[in-house]
């Protein structure tokens, strides 16, 4: 149980393109979803927390107009990187958590490469 | 702000050796999770500990939660190359919709 699907797993696109990443909880209702960015050999850097039906809460230094997050249902959250540039290239990972003090379950990540 | 200090940051050992990874904080957590992440993949949940003093075993891995729920350790017995990866500890939120606090991770390499 507790499967989180993240799609796509790998994106290569030109500078200026907007990219949408989907995160789905397949077998549980995710009241809270998280979006992380990870650099090589480093830990996870939280970008934002989203609760279903509410606006996302962004961490300090993360541009909310650059990284648009939508959590419209209990099983789906999306992250859109708008007008992506090479410095946005990274590994993006989502996680989902059910009600209460449940642990987070992670997707397999999306490798984003902006040329 | 809750912080989790994880040590060591990097660990390289030979197959068959034992090792311990530590996760320490001055804050109390509702629970603590350990994850393992392999390159190019998302972290996979290994265990959740909830009760102070709790010990859980998963084959060759032993997890302990401190009595005061501020720290935890992960001990691996007779490490194997398949144990190689990034190990992350995460302190559970104190509020229902709150966020977890992650340690900086321990990169473990087990050489055959």
Account of the 3D structure:
With 115 residues, chain A is mostly beta strands. Chain A contains no helices and 11 strands. Chain A has strands at 4-7, 10-13, 19-25, 32-38, 44-51, 57-58, 67-73, 76-81, 90-97, 105-106, 110-114. In chain A, the strands form 2 sheets. In chain A, strands 2, 4, 5, 6, 9, 10 and 11 form a 7-stranded mixed β-sheet that branches. In chain A, strands 1-3-8-7 form a 4-stranded antiparallel β-sheet, with no helix packed on it. Chain A is globular. The N and C termini of chain A lie far apart (37 Å). The mean pLDDT of chain A is 93. Chain B is mostly beta strands. In chain B, the strands form 2 sheets. In chain B, strands 2, 4, 5, 9, 10 and 11 form a 6-stranded mixed β-sheet that branches. In chain B, a hairpin with a 2-residue loop joins strand 6 (55-58) and strand 7. Chain B is globular and about 45 Å long. The model of chain B has no long low-confidence stretch (mean pLDDT 92). The interface between A and B is medium-sized, with 27 and 25 residues.
Please state the average pLDDT score of chain A. Answer: 93
Identify the overall geometry of chain B: globular
Biggest beta sheet attributes of chain A: 7 strands, mixed
Distance between the termini of chain A: 37 Å
- The proportion of strand residues of chain B reads over 45%
- H/I helix tally of chain A: 0
Whole-Å distance between the termini of chain B? 40 Å
- Arithmetic mean of pLDDT of chain B: 92
The SSE string of chain B, one letter per element, is EEEEEEEEEEE
How many β strands of chain A by DSSP?
A: 11
Describe the oligomeric state of these chains in a short phrase. heterodimer
Major sheet size, sense and barrel closure of chain B = 6 strands, mixed
Beta strand count of chain B: 11
Low-confidence stretches of chain B: none
- Computed over alpha carbons, the radius of gyration of chain A is 13 Å
Query: Biggest interface in this structure?
Result: A-B, 27 and 25 residues
- Judged by helices, strands and strand pairing, the structural class of chain B is mainly beta
Proportion in helices of chain B: under 10%
- Uncertain residue ranges of chain A: none
- What value does the Rg of chain B take, in angstroms? 14 Å
């Amino acid at each position: 149980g507790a499967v989180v699907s993240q799609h796509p797993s790998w994106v290569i696109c030109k500078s200026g393109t907007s990219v949408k990443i989907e995160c789905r909880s397949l077998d549980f209702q995710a009241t809270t979803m998280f979006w992380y960015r990870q650099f090589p050999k480093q830990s996870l850097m939280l970008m934002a927390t989203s609760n279903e039906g509410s606006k996302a809460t962004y961490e300090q230094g993360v541009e909310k107009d650059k990284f648009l997050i939508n959590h419209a249902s209990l099983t789906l959250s999306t992250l859109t990187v708008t007008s992506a540039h090479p410095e946005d290239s990274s590994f993006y990972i989502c996680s989902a958590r059910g009600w209460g003090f449940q642990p987070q379950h992670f997707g397999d990540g999306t490798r984003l490469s902006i040329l | 702000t809750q912080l989790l200090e994880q040590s060591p940051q990097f660990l390289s050992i030979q197959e068959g050796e034992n090792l311990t990874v530590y996760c320490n904080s001055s804050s109390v957590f509702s629970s603590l999770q350990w994850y393992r992440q392999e390159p190019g993949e998302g972290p996979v949940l290994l265990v959740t500990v909830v009760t102070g003093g709790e010990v859980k075993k998963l084959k060759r891995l032993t997890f302990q939660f401190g009595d005061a729920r501020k720290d935890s350790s992960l001990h691996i017995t007779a490490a194997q190359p398949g144990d190689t990866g990034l190990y992350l500890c995460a302190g559970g939120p104190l509020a229902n919709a709150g966020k977890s606090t992650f340690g900086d991770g321990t990169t473990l390499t087990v050489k055959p």
